[in-house]
Amino acid sequence: MVSLILMTFPYPETDYQEDNRGQFHFSSRSGWMNDVNGPVYYRGVYHLYYQHAPNSLVWDTMHWGHATSTDLLHWTQQPIALDPQVHPGDLWSGGGVVDLENVSGLKDGDDDPILVYSGTNGVTVFYSVDGGNTFLTYADGKKVATPGGTSRDPKVFWDPVSETWGMVVWSDEGGNGVDFYTSTSLLDWTFASRYAAEWLFECPNLIRMPIDDGHRWVLHAGSGKYVVGEWDGTAYHSDWTEPQRINQTETFAGAGYYAALNFENMPGGRIVSMAWQGENKGSIWTGNASFPVDLTLHHTPDGLRVFSTPIPELASLRTSSETWDNLTIADSTQQLPAGSTYELEATVDVSQATRFTLKVGREVTYEAQRLDGAELRPVDGKVKLRLLVDRDQLDVFGNDGEVYQSYNVRPTELELTAEGRAVVEQLTIHQLGSIWR
């Protein structure tokens, strides 16, 4: 009976074919969408929750929307997961975990508890005992942690070294920063420490990432700014004085990239992240999610950096491919047939070019060892570019994920332009099918 009360589905019919709706980027069936919330993997199903105003095209009273997938590509809209008429408090952004060991003691049936954390100026817990489809409120909405100042956006993580759960929550007490809490039960939380930084605003996330024979911890904000450091079980430490960017664009709430979170409980420790792209809308929906990327940590000449690459599952959407070899563009422009939903892969010798541009509605320009302003050094005089063009969504990757940029732009005919002499050693365009069944 509880499940029937919690499940609402206020969505009209749609074929997802509005001319600017992404065909391989997730968007809500209707209504407003912003931050990705509590993404988890459980028993073969990816659960994507998100900030949602189901009956509005602008930000309004927040719910948690819900969609599921078995391949991170094809998403099915589900009933609303958290509804303010049923679940208490401000249902703002937060994270989620799968309680495989039932440390919370909330298990009731065959499914492991899935817990999500939300709320402003104090953290509220909601839990599911039916595989992440419906949620109950823990302890009538009791706040399990209350940082000082204004606070929101709790995210929970597991530390296998100290064998404790940690929670990071944004708070403005004394300036921007995050409060850390620890727990062994996922329900009773103890304040552990604070990490302050002016850049560390909203939607924080702490990710344990493999590198060499060990691990480092990446702390990032809603903007995608991050530092690399260590988590000692109670506190976070980094010797970085300035953050880097996961997505090298101008990021802010409502931009082409914001508030990314990674899926918890992933097989093999894989780190898959999705963000909010806020500059796209149609007649019945506003906002979409970025295409999922694999995050990895790499050594570079400038130190450790987070690389982002499109998930390899993308290849299953390819319907046809066309390849051009050794295109020489010297102080000229060349057009190529492309379409509006495709993946482009190119290796370009820029050793004799002062400027090289791919025009796809936006000019993606490589100049002075920078790709649209982000540093990208050539390797043997060459750069590798990969673009995902999806109607009004554009994701740009450079040198196997060293650079990652996301935009909402309207695609145009594909044009290649060079100042000087650029040799496109190989360029392949893969036409991509729709994820909407």
From TrEMBL:
Residues 25-300 form the Glycosyl hydrolase family 32 N-terminal domain. Residues 372-430 form the Glycosyl hydrolase family 32 C-terminal domain. This is Glycoside hydrolase family 32 protein. One of its GO terms (cellular component) is cytoplasm. It comes from the Bacteria. Belongs to the glycosyl hydrolase 32 family. The keyword Hydrolase applies. The keyword Hydrolase applies. Gene3D superfamilies: Exo-inulinase, domain 1, Glycosyl hydrolase domain, family 43. Keywords: Glycosidase, Hydrolase. InterPro entries: ConA-like_dom_sf, Glyco_hydro_32, Glyco_hydro_32_C, Glyco_hydro_32_N, Glyco_hydro_beta-prop_sf. One of its GO terms (biological process) is sucrose catabolic process. One of its GO terms (molecular function) is sucrose alpha-glucosidase activity.
